[in-house]
Amino acid sequence: MTVEEQVKDIVSRIAHIDKSIISRTATFKEMKADSLDVVQALVAVEETFDIEIPDEEAQKFRNFGDFVDFVEREAAKKKG
Amino acid sequence: MKPLQGKVALVTGSGRGIGKAIALKLASQGCDIVVNYFRRREAAEQTAEELKQLGVKVEIVKANVGDPAKIEELFAAVEKSFGHLDIFISNAASGVGRPIMDIDEKAWDWTLDINAKALLLCAQRAAPLMEGRNGKIVSISSLGSKFVWPTYAAVGISKAALEAVTRYLAIEFIPKGIAVNAVSASAVETEALKFYIREGLVKDAKQTTPVGRMVTPEDVANVVSFLCSEEASMIRGQTIIVDGGTCVAPWASVIEKGEA
């Protein structure tokens, strides 16, 4: 399973969003995820990949694609 | 020698806002500080730098205090770094701002876990680290525990629970030599308050505060610091209100100052 698929799984499960509407260009607002959904998804992704996604970084995400790109970069760093 | 020299304080949610002001105040009294943060790493690192400039030891620990496993990790880190604890400040707070009909179980659990359950679980973990040290525990509440604001239900209810936990801890922890109290404030000038003002939920509190200015994080920190001193040792289980007179003079919001 790719990082993108794993992140999509987590967001879908936590925010109760159908996977079909989660795309790289979709914003959390467009996916109808509220601020609690977003925080809980960030926390779940952090734990899954053993990485940290501080709010200072998360606030820069324009869409789901930016979120996935950040997780891929951090997960790769972690693997070294 | 500073009054709290050599003591160790853990302040949850101390990267910014009221928690940061408390950490700085306790450090100015000589306390070594464990800075806990959840989401904002840069802010926590900045706070740690400011604390180190006061000449105290500082540890930064990331933990969501709404998660019991993370509380365990937080206190394990405190134990590893310092071996004991003298002061625990339960300040970290979160919450979902919704009308009561929109508060689902997820929003309720999130808010109550971080704002109320965390005090219970952290106090249970802190107590053995405070053994024989005249420990102090202070929780940070808000006037939402007693008064009703739009969309503040989940947080207000959690703060009422927090104050109740504080009272029970205060009495049950007497044999352990630990003093437990709460500090409650009206609208405090923080980033969190700016959110409420932007959303139109809080008006300029300067107009509704008899003293004529808003409560600052430092006002809250000063009272917390006093409760952590031996001078306050006969105060137990109380919620001390820091509000510039708002609670006792609600009319101040509707009449001109000086016409009372």
Q: Could you explain how this protein is built, in words?
A:
- The complex is a heterodimer of chains A (80) and B (260).
- Chain A is built from 4 helices and no strands.
- Chain A is mostly helical.
- Chain A is globular, with a radius of gyration of 11 Å.
- Chain B has helices spanning 17-28, 41-52, 68-82, 105-129, 153-172, 191-198, 217-227, and strands spanning 8-11, 32-37, 58-62, 87-90, 136-142, 179-185, 239-242.
- By secondary structure, chain B is an alpha/beta fold.
- The chains are: A mainly alpha (80), B alpha/beta (260).
- At the A-B interface, α2 and α3 of A face α2 and α4 of B.
Q: In sequence order, what are the helices and strands of chain A, one letter per element?
A: HHHH
Number of strands of chain B: 7
Please count the helical segments of chain B.
Answer: 7
Uncertain regions spanning at least 5 consecutive residues of chain B: none
Adjacency order of strands in the biggest sheet of chain B: 3-2-1-4-5-6-7
Most extensive chain interface and residues per partner? A-B, 11 and 11 residues
Fraction of residues in helix of chain A: 55-70%
Write down the oligomeric state. heterodimer
Low-pLDDT sequence parts of chain A:
none
Q: How far is the first residue's CA from the last residue's CA of chain A? A: 19 Å
- Terminal CA distance of chain B reads 46 Å
Structural class of chain A: mainly alpha
**Secondary-structure element string of chain B:** EHEHEHEHEHEHHE
Could you tell me the strand content of chain B as a percent range? 5-15%
Q: Provide the structure class of chain B.
A: alpha/beta
Mean pLDDT figure of chain A: 92
Global Rg of chain A:
11 Å
What is the CA-atom radius of gyration of chain B, in angstroms?
18 Å
Number of helices of chain A: 4
